[in-house]
Write a structure and sequence with these properties.
With 224 residues, this protein is of the alpha+beta class. The chain has 2 domains: 14-140, Sandwich (Jelly Rolls); 148-222, Arc Repressor Mutant, subunit A (Orthogonal Bundle). Helix content is 39%, strand content 24%. It has helices at 2-8, 18-23, 109-118, 120-146, 149-160, 178-185, 189-201, 218-222; strands at residues 30-34, 39-41, 49-55, 58-63, 69-75, 80-81, 95-98, 102-108, 170-173, 205-208, 210-214. The radius of gyration is 18 Å and the shape is globular.
Length: 224
């Protein structure tokens, strides 16, 4: 059980305050506000900058050549995205959409590269974040291959609630539709509705407008 919990919880990060550094006047990035539902960039757009979320949430969506859509990530305050620009990615592989009212800092690729070379603490924190994202992607793949839709939904809700990042008895999520959850989990809306009702009856979640996720939901993920 301990092994699985460690896999879900994010690794401890260095003490360097990325938010304070990026919010300071020393970073020449643009701070842009978006309304919920706004598109920050689209799949196939030039990949020339890195984004840092100050407030709000972002969902990353992919459209296949066959026209099938899937949400591949839900991000929140303190997260970076668009970092493929630093690895030579020419075009965006996803579409980034504001899941809530949103404030992001946009740092051009060349400026971000200089910052990472000049600010070693920022570089260490950014590397830790990228590695954690890579671990998350691998865990997502395992989740899709081997776990039931019920477990995938429970895990998705825990991740959205930033499980392990805050010492709170429960975590309130921004408004998210069952259609969006179904896209994330890879199942139908009706199945999501069934499991959400089950989780609520068991006391794992509460929703009446807002959605609160209790840590006890982890028992669904750990149950064999």
């Amino acid at each position: 059980m301990a092994t699985i919990e460690k896999r879900i919880q994010p690794p401890k990060q260095p003490s360097f305050d990325v938010k304070a550094f990026l919010d300071s006047g020393g970073v020449s990035g643009r701070v842009v506000a978006y309304r919920r539902g706004s598109v920050l960039y689209s799949q196939g757009d030039p990949c020339d900058s890195v984004f840092y979320i100050q407030q709000g949430g972002v969902k990353l969506r992919v459209l296949s050549s066959a026209g099938k859509e899937a949400i591949v990530a839900m991000l929140g305050p303190g997260d970076f995205f668009g970092e493929g620009a630093l690895a030579g990615q020419v075009l965006r592989m996803t579409t980034a959409i504001a899941a809530t009212p949103l404030s992001v800092m946009i740092v051009e690729r060349e400026r971000m590269v200089r910052l990472l070379h000049e600010q070693h603490e920022l570089s260490d924190r950014f590397l830790a974040y990228v590695l954690a994202r890579n671990i998350r992607v691998e865990a997502d793949l395992v989740d899709q291959l081997f776990n039931s839709s019920e477990k995938r939904l429970a895990r998705a809700l825990l991740l959205l609630a930033r499980y392990g990042k805050r010492e709170l008895p429960h975590h309130t999520l921004p408004k998210i539709s069952q259609e969006t959850l179904a896209e994330m989990v890879g199942t139908t809306r009706s199945r999501v509705n069934f499991f959400m009702n089950k989780f609520r009856k068991l006391g794992f979640i509460e929703y009446n407008g807002d959605l609160k996720v209790h840590d006890s939901l982890l028992t669904i993920v750990l149950h064999d």
